[in-house]
Amino acid sequence: MTASRSTTSLAALLAVLACVEVVLFASDAADGVRYGVGAALAVGILVVVARLAKGRASD
Prior knowledge:
By secondary structure, the protein is mainly α.
């Protein structure tokens, strides 16, 4: 049950990060802010995807 809850939490986090990325790039923020924060969000997305993949591989 803990693994299922963890996977669900990571999937929810992934959805939130992706939505924030889309909203950020659609905003009127300065280019430096959009690309800097967008890059940090992209790294976060990759980390979450890697953790999800690792969890699936161990199942």
